[in-house]
Amino acid sequence: MVDCSEKLRSLREARGLTQLQVAERIDVSKAMVSAYETASKAPSIEVLIRLSRLFGVSVDYLVCVDAPKMIDVSGLDEEAIALLASLTEKLKHQSKE
Question: Nearest 5°: phi and psi at 31?
């Protein structure tokens, strides 16, 4: 069983959402969200996909696979995307120094 309980709780709390709000947004019961966060049940693939979309992270991130983190750039124009890419590269370079 994949344990993504701590990440789910952290993501939910970081966004100021209750378990009920998450449950409503991913179409499961509040009890299921609680079970996911206590690792007594594992979300199905379909629910993992809904959770990844809700929180703007990859399914790999939720299931603790070391994958690069992603930024959702939908809704940004090409200039803003280029600016983000440039900033990301600059920050990567600075952290290596």
Answer: -60, -35
